[in-house]
Every structure is written in structure tokens, then in C-alpha cells.
UniProtKB/TrEMBL annotation:
It comes from the Bacteria. Gene3D superfamilies: SGNH hydrolase. InterPro entries: GSCFA, SGNH_hydro_sf. This is GSCFA domain-containing protein. The lineage of its organism: Bacteria, Pseudomonadati, Bacteroidota, Flavobacteriia, Flavobacteriales. GO terms for molecular function: hydrolase activity, acting on ester bonds. It comes from Polaribacter gangjinensis. Residues 22-256 form the GSCFA domain.
Amino acid sequence: MKLQTQIPLQKETKNPINYHSKMVLLGSCFSENIGAKFDYFKFQNLQNPFGIFFHPKAIEKFIQQVISKKVFSENDIFFENERWHCFDAHSSLSSSNKEILLSNLNLEIESTNLALKNATHCFITLGTSWIYRNIETNEIVANCHKIPQKNFTKELLSVAEISASLQNIIAQIQSINPTITIIFTVSPVRHLKDGFVENTQSKAHLIAGIHSVLKGKNGCYFPSYEIMMDELRDYRFYAEDMIHPSKIAIDYIWKKLVTTWFSEDSIPIMNEVDSIQKAMLHRPFHENSEQHRAFLKQVNSKIAEIQKQFTSIQF
């Protein structure tokens, strides 16, 4: 008896991910869910240097700033609710000290420029087609920082606008790294604050925009949204808010990504890393016992062995 419809997936053969790969992940909070998996298994990756980006225009502007090595100044930040913010970055970078904010913004621009030049893969996860435009400047913002709604107009990006934005993102990244593999995905997180129908329209625009660009073979698509909506169409796969994927769902989608995109020789290394990670979480009843000392010696021996093969792996 078949109790689930399966999304057909093809194994990547041209540029599979292994422990020599270097990833850059940009986009919605789902990027951070997958990024946490890359961290756990000790892959080389950089995640959302300017924090979470929800829509393609925010990612496009960030990439332009990275490629041009923009230097942020006081003209690019503002003070509100006792903190300094930047409309181009997430509130996770905001600070009570403007010098710290500016320093962090400029450091992230430099580090992302270097990371993109050396990256083998770039994951771009899109969350919504809805954008907010600052009425005063007429600029699209990445984050509103809880500024009153009256200061912004809300717009829905058309499929054509999304396609153009994605083409610009691809062209800019390839200008400094022609061999990079760019993988697009749509976040399965529903933006219900926009409305149920509005969220569906938003996701549809993103999916249509991505696939219109992929017709030119300028990137790849991983169906995380489709897996969540079709294979995991049950509320037991959602977190308590009934909106975000649960840990089980994230693990499931991650395994699908591994099956599709990871090289076969990386799997034994991942299993070994997993074993070490679980061992490091072990809490002994008697720390000074001979048995625990032998256990620690065995774990340290495993770490030393894996670090001989991959110096980038650090525990």
C-alpha cells in the first residue's frame, strides 16, 4: 500500500557536494535550517551574512553591494527604538552602538565577497514575493525593523520582476565566480500574515519566476517547498505555530537534499562526524572514571583521524 506521493528527484552528477565544497546560503529562515545541518556535519559554509532575507529584491541588492564592495556609512543607517538599524540588513545585526553596526556591515561585505569568489555552491531560498517600499526614499527594504506600517507601501512582485531580479543575481555572482553552482529553492514556511490566498499567490510568483530563469540553464532547483506541501502534507510535520516545519520535517528535507546533491564518498564522513557529535554530547555519571577516560581517548582519536583528511573540520 502506498501512503505517500513522492517528489521525483534526480541525482546531481556534475558538481555534487563533498567535504571540499564551499557553500554560501542566502535567503529566508529555511536557509538557516539547512545551514544548521551543514554546520552540524562540519561542511564549509557561510549563512546569511546580513541576516534573513525574505524576498528576491533584498538578495539582489545585497549581491550588488557585495560585488561592488560597498562601504556603509552613517547615511546608510538610522536610529529607532534605542538601536541603530540598516534597511538593507536584518534586525539581528542592529546595535545600540552605530560604530559596531557599521563595522559589522562592512566586515560582512568583505567576507561574503571572498566567500562567493571561492564558493562551489550558492543556495538561494526565496520566502515571499511581497515587498515593502520606504515612502520617504522610494527604496525597497530588506527589513522594516518594526517601523510603523504607514511609512511603507506594500507591493507584490510580478513574475517578470522576480525573473529579472534572479537573472541579475546570477549574472552578478558569475561575474566573480563563473564556475559556481547556484541552487534555488522556495521556503516551505507560509507567510500567513500576508493572508492565506496572498501567501499562495506569492509562492506561485516565486516558483514561476525561478523556473522561467532556469529555462536558460542558469541554475538548479531543489523542491523543498514541494516536498513539504506534497510528501509531508500533515500537521504533525509542523512546529507548534502550524507554520514552520518541525524538526522531523527539516530532517526529512535534509535527507532528500543529501540523497540528491551529496557525493557518495561524503556519506561515510558525515556518519563519522555524526558519531563524534553525539559522543561529545555524552554526559558521564563519573567524569574521573577509567571508563570515561577511555571513552574520551577514543573520541579524540576519531577527531584526530578525521582532521588528518580534512583540516577544515573543527570540533
